[in-house]
Structures are given as C-alpha cells and as structure tokens.
TrEMBL record:
Record's keyword annotation contains Signal: yes
Species this protein is from: Rhodovarius crocodyli
Phylogenetic placement of the source organism: Bacteria, Pseudomonadati, Pseudomonadota, Alphaproteobacteria, Acetobacterales
SUPFAM superfamilies for this protein: Periplasmic binding protein-like II
Signal peptide: 1-37
Coiled-coil annotated residue ranges, if any: none
Protein name as catalogued: Tripartite tricarboxylate transporter substrate binding protein
Amino acid sequence: MMSRLGPSSTGNPAMTLIARRALLAASALPLAGPAFAQAYPTRPLRLIVGFGAGGISDLVARLVAEAAGQAIGQSIIVENRTGAGGTIAAEAAARATPDGYTLLFGGPSLFAINAVMMGGSVADTAKELAPVLPLASTPHVLVVRPQLGVTDLAGFVARARQRNGEMTWSTAGVGTSPHQTMVLLQSLSGARFTPVHYRSGAAGVQAVLSGEVDVTAEATAVVVEHIRAGTLVGLVAAAPERLDLLPNVPSSKEAGMAELENGSLSALLVPRATPQPVRDKLREAFGTALASATLRQRLAQQGTFALGGDAAALEGMIATEVAKWRPLLAGLAG
C-alpha cells in the first residue's frame, strides 16, 4: 500500500481515556447552566474538516458553515486538519474544550471504517465524540483517463482482473470514502487494486489526470467538469439512479452492479462532554440551514443531497455503516 500522507498524530500516551473524559466532563460543568446556553454563542465557532481544500468535504463544509453561521448568529470558520483519513481532525476535535466552539465535520466512517482499520486509539477517539445530526450525502462517480481504453464498468473490471492488482486507485486516505468504494468494488467484482493515498479527493483526481494512477472514485462536483471536458471518463455513478449533473453516466444498477453504492456521508459531531443545551442549539441552527431552499440548491449544484435530522438519526446511520463496512474492511486492518 502506497501513501502520499504525512505522519499521524499519536496524542499524549500518559493520559488515559478515562482520565481525559473525566477532565473534559469536569471542565464542562460550569458551562451546563441555562445562562451559558442562552448566551451561546458569543464568538465565532471553529469547524474542523479532516480533508484538504478543493475536495468534496471541504466544499460542502464551507457551504454548510456559511448557512449555519447565519442561523446561529456567529461566523463558523472552517479549519482543514488533513491526514490519516480524517483521524487527525477527529483527535483535535475530541481534545478541544467541550464548550460548543469547536465542531467536527466528520461522518460515520470514523466509527465504521477508521476504528476498524487503524486500531484502538481511533476507536477511543470516536468514543470521545458525540453525534449532533447528519449533514449531507454525495454519491461517487468512478473515473479513469481516456488513455486507459475502457468506456464502461464491465470493460474496466475485465481489464483490472487481467492486471491482477497492478491497477492503482487514488484515495483521500485509508478508510475514506474513495477507499471504501475501491474495497466494495473488489468485493463485488473479484478484481484487485493497489491504493495510493493522497491528502484530499481533489489531489487524487489530479493524480488520475496526470497518469500517476489509473482510477479513482470521487464526488460528482470534483469530477464533473473533467468528464464534460473529456479528460476523464465516467464509468458509473455509485448510486441507484443517474445523477442530474451527469445524465450520461449510468447508475450502478444500469451498469450491472446494483450493490455498488457509496459516497461521502458527512455529519456534525462535538466533544462528548459538550452540554446538551449547546448541542440542541447547534442541531437547531444546522437543521435550519439544511432545510433552507438556498443551501439545498447550492449543495445540489455540487451533486450533494442535504440531510438533517437529529442525533438519533445519525446514530442510526452509523449503525448501518458499521454493519455494512466492518466485514469488508476487517481483513485490511492494521
């Protein structure tokens, strides 16, 4: 497995998980009163994103942050903390003061994917974060360079089988949604690929364009203009229906592999000790933003569907993702 990622953070080994949670909970006690919740927020908020500028996570996070900031009455500043498939960002959010001013733009993959593939420390980090609500969903499109000489999914799979693991696949890091799509396609088709990990989905797409790697699966917004320009070939949309932005790219069902459905799922999370009244304010503000016609239209232009809901809805999504992905990824852990 090749990598274009920097080293991951190991945290402070001297502080146990239990001690850290106790410290966070104690620090949150003065914040839990009604006066604090009523006044909150009194300054700008920070939304940590685990992937680089130009990728779908960054694009969606900035759109949602702008609208939610208007709803809550304070600016929400996006901060990119790249590396380790979003785990570095999750660690930074989990260790932040649980006062509602540090938020994580994460997703079910932290619980269902990273915790399986990266070991116990990541699972511990996931336990230190609390779900607030689902944010958005963006289906993937499988793309290759025209020079590869394939124009449909069946031809691509046949070529990959012939090359027997030599075909390279760019991802945004171990356990990220492009990596998930690769693993899912391997399971469904019997083909094998070599993953090459980059800091963002956009960087992975550039690697395909330059010929550094053969294939990737990325969000519609990241690949749509390249497909329209003919510099990339869209083989299949990993969705049950064709996408409005790419009406000429077949759905997974039309391509003969209906189970090939995946994309980028995003959610809002906070440090576990964040007071419930603050979580409620965040859920209300982000929910209001996601329900607005303006934001929904702006997301649709990125090939993304607004979600919304509450913590229970997000917990249900996490449970579904865990059930789907753990059996596929357990063999790749380490």
